[in-house]
Amino acid sequence: MSSVVPTRKTSPPEMASIAKDPAGKNNNKDTIPEDLNIPDNYVAWALKNQKELPPVTWDNLFQNINWISLLALTITPSIAIWGVFNVKLRTATLVWSIIYYFITGLGITAGYHRLWAHRSYNASKPLQYFLAVAGAGAVEGSIKWWSRGHRAHHRYTDTELDPYNAHKGFWWAHIGWMIIKARRKPGVADVSDLSKNEVVRWQHRWYVYLLLACGFLLPTLVAGLGWGDWLGGFVFAGAGRLTFVHHSTFCVNSLAHWLGETPFDDKHTPRDHMITAFMTIGEGYHNFHHQFPMDYRNAIKWYQYDPTKWFIWTMQQLGLASHLKVFPENEVRKGQLTMQLKKLRELQDGVTWAPEVQQLPIISWESFQEQSAKRPLIVVAGHIHDVADFLDEHPGGRHLLTKQIGKDATTAFFGGVYDHSNAAHNLLSMMRVGVLHGGHQHGLQDKAIPPSQRLRVARYNELTGSPYASSAWSDGEGMLS
Ligand SMILES: [Zn+2]
Ligand SMILES: [Zn+2]
Known about the structure:
The chain has helices at 42-49, 67-86, 91-117, 125-136, 143-155, 170-179, 192-195, 198-205, 207-227, 230-253, 274-279, 286-291, 307-317, 329-349, 365-372, 398-402, 410-413, 422-429, 445-448; strands at 122-123, 321-322, 362-363, 377-380, 383-386, 432-436. With 481 residues, it is mainly alpha-helical. α3 packs parallel to α10 and α9 (207-227) crosses α10.
């Protein structure tokens, strides 16, 4: 296999399976940032030059299965399912299984994910050891291996260099990427900071023993020594709990890239959803997370479910965690506002507006009066309106309109006779057929612009040349169409 980095001889950390994760064999050489010498066009370079394995077909499927991962991910739930039908579930064991689910789950979410992969806060040594041990009990590979993959996921989200590229389908992102050997290596991501961390090194070195001890032995021992339920401890707190922890965290790669809203950005697949948050101990606000990955929070509202955030905050109160990173509120709001404006723009584009001033002919007063003899034209705020279709619809009666034909009704319209509603003003603007030459000074600008158009969502390249400041008001004589 060729190296990810073209200018270095050392090969990057193995794209290992869950259980194949190397136990401390390639330390110390990785203290130089992995991505120090990558070309500026790395993504294009990697996609072009790095070999891709041939597609998986029925013929080569057998050789392309990652058997250790497959067995780990099938035997564990099989034991749990067998236990459901053959082992009595005792209340104490059930409670212990749920508690241990949260302990090992937090090892991944608060430890592997927010502490090590994203450095979103600092943890004291005791807390680090606790999270490293708890995380090992979730049987998802060592901190170092896991974080390397996760950093690549953030860096190359939704591309071929993303190890759990959501564009390859829900099940690929959920579990397929672990069971089928990857067609190409994940993009380069530096974990040299983790190589220097003594807790991460310790966990990497003893990973296989920690996995067995925390994944199966400890949950069995607690139930066995605690209340004599050895088999129940193994089946429910061990295998059953592990199955839930697995699929709970796998949902961050699948469900969180598939279900929900994009309140902060819609460039990539990550989404926010309460259901995903409940499934993943609070990692369900994934749209926020991909925008602000170094924030220790996933949920920014107090009522949103994010126990991982509550855990980190509590650790801070206990003096075990510090430097909790929070992205500037002002920048978070920019993202939210952009997405809201985008939605409003769609709404705006679905509405029919009054004709633009530039599209209307400029008519002299004399011409206006002449043409008023043939059709019901009324001037309001510098604009000429054809009210033919509205005469019988006018709530104040036909007579109030007919007496204004060929005249300037601005004063009457704006309160002289009746102070028309915004809706009436908007509707009037739809009847515009011309602009009165020299008529604009007659009304203030806010009378010429319909209320619905005073605030509009404009793209950056639409901001210049407001129609009311353009040459549309220059001298000219036109005919109404
Ligand atoms: Zn993601
Ligand atoms: Zn992340």
